[in-house]
Sequence to fold (227 residues):
Amino acid sequence: MIFTPWTILILIAFGLSLLAQFRVKGTFNKYMKVAASSGLIGAEAARKMLDENGLNNIPVECIRGPLTDHYDPISKAVRLSEHVYYGNSVASISVACHEIGHAIQDKVNYPMLVARHRLFPVINFSSGIAPLLFLGGFFFKISGLLLLGIIAFSAAVAFQIITLPVEFNASKRAKDYMIKLGFIKNNEERAARNVLGAAALTYVAATLVSVLQLAEYLWIFNNNDED
Fold:
């Protein structure tokens, strides 16, 4: 590992990222034990929220694996993990409605989601070549390769930054509809906020790590250029 003035900050941010992931699992497990007063399971809440927004054609499917919940914009389907699909807890409903938030964003062409979709093919390419460009530029002392690596990595950082408002907006839509449609009561709102907030924290921490890494790469490039 190359130690720079940024290394300690990156390690701290990486530690925060790990803590955020543990917090997500802990928060989810905690509120999985708190049954929602509405009695709905995640799949039912998801279906009702979809129908409320005229998305009757989007199926809600069950998939294996913990925290594998997602909205597939290509297949136009919401996929929920077994604990969320069949669970009647505040956590299950919160996660299910968050994914419906993404489906609604897709329907209304939410600008940040559109930008993320357009950037995705670029990320698939740039994330694969960036490490090779960095290694080649560093070991062979070719500043041009380092710069190309930085540009490629910058696309990945931009993708993560754009992801933040996408996730926060989906959570806001989820919370608003959970209250509006009676999925949760007033005394359950805090639990829902904790579940959604813990998930959002992982994206914030991951973005912080990437931004600091980009700053480190720029520092290395500038110092190599001076040499």
